[in-house]
Amino acid sequence: MPEQPKPAETPARQNVTFPSAGATAHGYLALPPSGRGPGVLLVQEWWGLTDHIAEVADRLAAEGFVVLAPDLYGGSVAHDAEEARRMMRALPVARGVELLAGAVGHLLSLPEVTSASAGAVGFCMGGGFVLYLAAVEPRVSAAVPFYGVIRDELPDFSRLRAHVLGHYGERDRSITPQRVEELRATIHRQSGLSPDFRMYPAGHAFFNDHRPTHHPEAASDAWHSTITFLHDHLDPRP
C-alpha cells in the first residue's frame, strides 16, 4: 500500500503560549520553510495534542502554511477510548469554540501569517469543532472537517461564510452517510452554501496513520484535495 507523503523539509516548530478566552493557552506552532505563509488552525482528535497531530502540523507547514495546533486539554493525552471520551465530555462545546476563536485571533496576529483569514482543519472531535467554529467565526474562510463528530445539537449555520470541504468514510459507524447528508442539507438550508462533502471507502479515523483504521489511499486523496482547497480559499492580506 502506498505511504502518505512526508515533508521534504523539516519545518521550524515550537511550543507556544498565547492569551485565549481569558486564560493562557498552549499550542504547537509550525512554520513553513519560507518562514511565512497563510494561517491554518489545526484542531486535535479526542486523544489530545498527540504526536500524530504534531506530524500533521509539520506536513501542513511543509506545504507552505503557518500552522497553530492549540492544546484543548492543557497537556493531557488520552491512552484509551474511555479516557478520551471522558476528556472530550469534560470540555463543553461553547468553551472549546471560545478557546479556538482566541487561537484564530493569535494566529492571524502573527507577522509570519500572510492571509487575511484562517483555514481550520480538524479530525474527529476536532472536525466537529471546525464546524462549530466556522458557524460563528467570520475570520475562518476555509473549513475542513475530517469525519467531524457533532457532539450535541447542530450549530446554527445561518452566519456561516466559510467554504467547507469535508471528508467522511462510507463505513464510519459513528458518522454514517445518512448523517453526513443530513448535515449537508442543514448547512445548505441555513446558510445557502453548499459544502463539498466527500465520501471514501473507509471507516472512522482513516487519515490517522497511528491507528489500525488508517486507509492510505483515502488519506492521500483527502490530503491532496485539502491542500489545494486551503491554497484556493485563503486570500492574501491586502
Automatic annotation (TrEMBL):
Show the Pfam families listed in the entry.
DLH
Name of the protein: Dienelactone hydrolase family protein
Listed SUPFAM superfamilies: alpha/beta-Hydrolases
Q: What EC identifiers does the entry list?
A: 3.1.-.-
Where exactly are the transmembrane stretches of this chain? none
Q: Which organism is it from?
A: Streptomyces anandii
Give every Dienelactone hydrolase domain span.
Answer: 27-233
The alphabetized UniProt keywords are: Hydrolase
UniProt-listed Gene3D superfamilies: alpha/beta hydrolase
Question: Is 4Fe-4S a UniProt keyword of this protein?
Answer: no
Example GO molecular function: hydrolase activity
